[in-house]
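hi support,

uploading two proteins for the ticket. first:
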Amino acid sequence: MKKMWLLVVVGALTACASLTESSKYQFSDGVYRVKLGKEKMSKVYVQIGEDSIGVYPVAQHRGALILDTARSLSLSFPETINESEFDSPLFVQTSFDLDVLTIPFKYRLPASGVPNQLTAHFTGAAYLGYRSDLYRLSYQKAPLVHRKRTIRHYGYSFGGFAGLGATTINPLLTDNQVTMEYEGVVFTKGIAGIIAVNNFTFGLGIGLDHLLDRNRSFWIYQGKPWFGLTFGLNLN
């Protein structure tokens, strides 16, 4: 069981490490909200060039986006620069987030005389939330060059999940109403917040479990809240 969980956690971390390598998490052409200097956030269409970024203010008319080319900007963003001054603009993109979540650890509150527990059983769930991705453009010192451009990516999402998991059923966890010990199947649901910092994605969830067999009425954690650590793999 421990070996299986080690593989699950490693697999989740590997999947999360690859998230920002997908086109969804790269800074690419599209509609953003942008913060330039002291100006307020504004909605723009961004076109990425080799050494510059085209920024076009947008308006929406009858469901279609209209680019205001008369007020467009071209931000110089070469691979390296000599000067240390750069405005470091912030671009924000929002989207709906469809993920597969793995919940490797659950913290359960005391129940029926059993103290609080940290359990490690398999739980997989589908997650739907609303996500914001932030891209900060800047320059950093690098060997052999003066300053090299960099794009820092941060993301966060909040939404709900539902799925299936496993749990131990034994006399202690059923007020001695069940004499055998086995691994039961539970339906799990709840809400989660997910954070992405560059290549690392993780989150925290609050959920409820419902045992799906005939001993559901004896299980001391039936329908009671837990807190857990989540890892996600994006589907869209």
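and the second one:
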Amino acid sequence: MTGPGRRPVPDPARRALLAAGMLTLPGLAACTGATGTPAAATTAAPPARGPAAEPSPSGAASPTRTQARRAGGPDITHGPADTAAVALTFHGAGDATLLTRMLAELAAAGARVTILAIGQWLAGEPRMARQILDGGHELGNHTWSHRTMPRLTAAQVRVEVDRAAAELRTLTGSAGRWFRPSGTPHSTPIIRAAAVAAGYGACLAYDVDPLDYTDPGAATVLRRFRAGVEPGSIVSLHLGHPGTVQAMPAMLDLLASRGLSAVTAGRLLGPG
């Protein structure tokens, strides 16, 4: 399948390898790393390699509504199941050089993603906001300092949401459409109240988590992605991890082989 925003479909042999999980990435043997450690609950700047992640939610929703939510839950975890698209969403912090490399891979494929930025990181790398938006991607809010939000008071939660929103407005003129809490895969009533007060709607969660922040190597990231992704999926990924960047071309090839495009969360979910 071809067209704007799609990678060319691989040749039949390559497609067969993808389906069988046998695709070999260049340099995979050298792409293993130490296990990641969750970030501490602190106001210090996030580590250079990117934030630790939240535990993955179990199971996956298969809804048909445009802004679909897990049954009984308030967060958006999945897009419409009848779409030929997937939203790749990134928890945003880490080495700007790695981000620039990933943006180049996305541009080569015509893919678009959503980056939920940590405010402190954006404040230290302000040029990245324009580079992300100029590439046709989407920016959102992943708190100011990546604290474990369920442990915070209501006042502290508001600071995390509001400071990051203010930084986004300063750099881009908009706080962005999406908010994702840190330190938890799901929001709480206190978190949701702060997000709504800051101008966000439902919090953006996910149904696929390859656990790339643990640095398992590009082959493992790809295998986990392959096992979970489906039409309408919202995928949790992370900036600042080399294995994620190295796996990205094969991840995009896999989507193309299934007739799926990588789009922003806004494009997947439609007008809010």
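thanks. also noticed: Residues 1-51, 53-72 have pLDDT under 50 and may be disordered.
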